[in-house]
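Workshop exercise sheet. Pairs work together: one partner reads the sequence aloud, the other fills in the structure field after running the prediction. Swap roles for the next sheet.
Pair: D.N. / O.F.
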Amino acid sequence: MHRSRSLSPTQVRVAVAAALLAPLTACSSHASPTAGDTAAARSVDDRPVTVTVTPTGGRTAPGKPVTVVAKGGTLTSVTVTDAAGHRLAGKASADGTSWVSNRGAAPGTAYTVAVATRSGRGTAAVSRASFTTAPATRVNKVDWRPGTGTTVGVAQPVSLVFDHPVTDRAAVEKRLSLTTSDGTEGSWGWMRDWSGRDRVDWRPKSYWKPGTKVTLKAELNGTDSGGAGGWFVRDYTTTFTVGARQVVKVDLDSHHLTLERDGKAVRRIPVSGGTPGGDKRSWRGTAVLMAKEGTVNMNSETVGLGKAYDKMVAYSMRLTWSGMYAHAAPWNARYFGNTNHSSGCIGMSDADAAWLYGQLRPGDPFEITGEETKGVVEPGNGFGDWNVPWAQWQQKSALR
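Structure field:
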């Protein structure tokens, strides 16, 4: 005969507790994921990386940097190339989700952007985009000195003269990079050129050290001059080397000049400077030899001196835009070494002028002293940069 067994109160409580605990265990976070859960997680990790490129489309505004942003992954490389194969360099963020070009897009240019990405699970992909910038309505051009591959004197500044006004000088100066082989200290300085155009020069704190190699990179393409100055649509590069230390010391009171090389006098030459007492006086201060122009037709009317002279002048060495030269002046022979009697230039004999002409190179300084002069050479009148004290010159930079 089958008998039923009754439970004690204690046994009942244990059974109830066990029944309540069973569902809690099944729902805990330690349960193994189902196949459906794993597939969902994998699909999230494998989603394609979303890439956004700015600017986009056609005839976009030039001058803005190119930006690339990745969502759902990271950027492994970004290449921005124009139709000629020139690249816009840039830098990625620390987390690899964004990239910005170092400079703005140039006007009137078609760009292709190639972007390589990696998803959260390591899936690589490449996407492409393109855009075109609107053309420049006005182009600003640059005339620069010295020419590339030249050897210059120790006082030669790097000089850029602009076709149109530059009102955003800081933006332009930021795009100018000058490097030297020996870490020469120097600074940019803005001024008005003798022609009336805007100009910026880089000069060392003191004369260059002979043998210094200099490289200028003016990465201006895509930079706005500001105002109505227009856009720059190309880059400029020049390299040059500094030659021997040569200084021409001109004493208008003793009526002689002396060529010094490496601090030692090489030759002393009798000269005649500008006539005292009027517009024919010479300039004083440091004037830099701008160019050796050979035989030049000099007409006094071109420098506001009426019909005083109209001559073909040999061994002409230009010192200022306003018309001061050192040159041969055989018609003035009786004044050499004793009287200043010229229309502002520094004249000497044919033989002495020929010798000096053969010794000098553009960039050699003429340090001119004398009581009867019409003032110090201004920075924009040739290369009168050295007549500005160093502290004042530094303040001429747009980035100070």
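Discussion prompt: The first helix runs from residue 9 to 26. What would you look at next?
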